[in-house]
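## retry 2 of 3
previous attempt timed out at serialization; input unchanged, resubmitting
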Amino acid sequence: MVWAFLPIHLRSLNASFSLISLISLLPALETIVLSPLWGGLLDSTRRSREIILGAVLAQALEFTLFPFLATPEQFVVAVSLVGVFTSSFIPVYSAMATWTSQQYGRAIGGFWAAASLGFGSATLLGGIVYELFDARHLFALGAVYGYLGCFAALLISRRAVAPSGAVPKSRGYLGLLRQRNILTLCIISVLAIVSTSAFNSFFTLYLVDFLGGSRLMAGLAATGTTVLGALAFRLVGPLNDRKGRKPVFLLGTVGYVVYFLATFLVTNALVVTILWVLPIYPFIQSSAAALASDYTSASDRGKGLGLLESAISLGGGLGPLAGGIIADAFELRVVILFSLATALVSAISSQIFLQEHARRAQASL
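## retry succeeded, writing output
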């Protein structure tokens, strides 16, 4: 609920676009390094509940600290410190989702659907609070959600967060990276996420400052994105199992090409908001995670998904950095053209280089 509005708050503190981009870049750099390590820790210890609790508690403490910060630089430092712990979120949750089901697309889609519903409802509430009150109230609400998350993590049963069946011997990080499929997937994922994050990281600013939309509209847009994303994940997850991962991934990259082209040509705030809430990202996220799960055994699932998350975070850091530099040098609309070109490259690359994996026999849907 906080992250969608943090760029607006930092801009109100006279932060440059380049400085604002650091709140995405620095956690992304941490995730690049630490996400595979968190995945390896999960594979070796199976202490998923403890890892989740530590990350959620760090997030809650961060939001508790936010009301006392006065400069954009202080916010950047706080975000980077907590990023050490929150870099564990995606590989740990995704690995847990695949431990008890061979239908990886459905399992990962269900996880992301639940996460999207939570984020969407929280962002809607955050948008209302930010519009009616101020940033301090928004940060306080985020802290309350964080502490409630800690309580929920304590209620998780240990039996619900452990892999089922025999676990084969791990191949380690180098063994996974020697797989051409894993490395190719990571490189293409970097391109895809650079295209989406370069402009979308600044979308609320573009909507409010350039198109004249309200902060409440920005909150509704973020909520619409996550709610529709949740529905899309529920549909796209099983689609990965039925039709294959590569066609779903390609559909997502082509969808972004069309989206950025339309966003550049249209300047109406309402129409642009409708375009932004279209659930395109679930096609890329679910198919990439399902492919990474196909390429790895249960003993390497955390590592494999950690490497994928590392690649995604690299794209998620480079994209806002490039977008911020371009926006400072030209204007924010030029970033849309950069995202369009990068999305086109990722679509072509996925068609040429991405390989469908021979998946395990799965139960009928």
